[in-house]
Amino acid sequence: MPYVEAAGLHKSFGAVHAVDDVSFTMEKGKFLALLGPSGCGKTTTLRMIAGLSQPDAGAIRLDGRDISLLGPEKRKIGMVFQTWALFPHMSIHENIAFGLRLQKLTKAQIKQRVVEALELVQLPGLEKRLPRQLSGGQQQRVALTRALATRPKLMLFDEPLSNLDHKLRIEMRTELKNLQRTLSLTCIHVTHDQGEALSLGDHVAVMSAGKILDLREADALFNRPRVRFVADFLGATNILRGHVINEAAGDTFQAESGIRIGVAVPDRIPPESIRYAAIRPEKVALRSTKLQASESVNAFPVRIAEVDYLGTVTRYIVDLEGPTGTKLTVSDSTGRILAIGEEALATWTREDVLLLQEDPGPVVEGGAGNGSP
Amino acid sequence: MRRRLRGKGLALYSLLIYAILITPIVIVVVVSFNASEFVSFPPKAWSILWYKRALLNSEFIRAFSVSASVAGITTAVSLVVGTMASLAFVRYRFFGKNILRSLSVARLAFPQVVLGLALLQYFINIGYGLGVKALVLGHVVVTLPFVVQIVSATLYGFDRSIEEAARTLGAGPVRTFLRITIPVIRPGVLTAGIFTFILSFDNVGISLFVADARSVTIPVRMFLYIQENYDPSIAAISTVLIAFAVVLVLILARLGTLDKVFRGRSGTYR
Known about the structure:
heterodimer; A: six-stranded mixed beta sheet; 8 helices; about 35% strand; elongated; B: mainly alpha; MetI-like fold
């Protein structure tokens, strides 16, 4: 029996179907990341699990028990909020002790647990401070350890890292992951940051318009996305619409815009279900036009249209020569910088082309790649 | 150079404004120590005679105690009702909310004397009667908009996830309200309370109409007194009241919420 189970969750706000038939299961000690753009229903899903929002339909089970009708205070679920939500009128000790007092522990036990809690997040001795006297990173750790101190069965995270600066966010991410492994915590983490989701999650669920589009191991989801939205959201932004045809030279993807690219259709995908081909910007190489001799299957002459120098990588938008009007985004890390108007040869391998199916349900608008019509 | 000159001009202008505001108060205080039989300025001889007279005057004493108890009850009632109304306005959506809210503010533009007269008619017609209970109800009508404004300003800046955090940590709704919500909005509520107390204590417009012979408040008693007497005991009583108000305002300043209230809806909307 799964440790956590969400079954057919629905939630509407007026005419908006915020969560539309969300179901998933989780094993104990695993980390699940709910990833999606704002408004996709990920936070609402999390809040329903916490008991802070009532589902219109569906059930939530935790550790073999249906908790759907319990108030948040009876669920034994810890939560860390985006704003950290420390009690501003209480010292750090009182903040952490708040949940422990409600568990009817003795004064000595509480004191002991607060000391342990602060040691866990490397903030010993801060008991007497007020939240506003702490830095953002420290407040975040207190919020984490305050929730952990009550020994919840499940930990929920509502984008708690989004209010930290970049460097601290990466640090906290590592710390959180280590803590989760050491304590074998079961966690659900909501984020709109794909890097955060992939780094933290054993499993990642990508959500859009209230639905889970795909839920798999992080690496599988990234390397072998099944549907267009997931590929796009995880950075495969060059997306072409079309279909696969069989040719003597091998599998070929015929795009609606007219271009043909060589692909390798894996056995697991029925060729007739393929609607899109996607290529990650970093998988495209820009080579000198002198190598024209077709050394690779996919080699297209292009002209540089836009250059965006970002340091480690340079992002280009290139126009494919010819009548198709196709544009590609290319992420180049060779350090060589091409100028606008320069010609080059864009190449990639058959295996780098991701073959995708249509999104389930109504087609999701927005965020489409450059190649799609 | 020009900047500097303008700075001086501004300083002088500010000084003048403050002088105009404060001079009458200073005069009242000075007059209260006048040994003369009549209110006159500047005094020729000094005395605390009028303080003795005023503080031994049983009518003043009784009026003071009526005012204090009316202000106390008014404050308690206004705070409970006003805080509840603020919670409803800020946190819930309901039919007629905007109309109710506009009405609660529109009341401020309504002449108190008219309201006092209306309340007098109303209380007598419905058989509610006059006296302390009428004073309290009348004063609540005056003070409630202030409480709603001040407490609402505090609630707009309130991050509701701290209440949710309390819930996930095991606290039920009632405990969350008492241990988290109330303590966090307490400075706003206390500020509103002190305002209410001062407004009620000072009120003439309503009190003049709905007080009865046994429940004359101190401002009304003073008003009645100067119609027949013009001795400095009225200045002495005034000075005592000024001192009382200064203490309350100092408490307000210490609470540090005045800025927030007058800046209005500070903090983040959620």
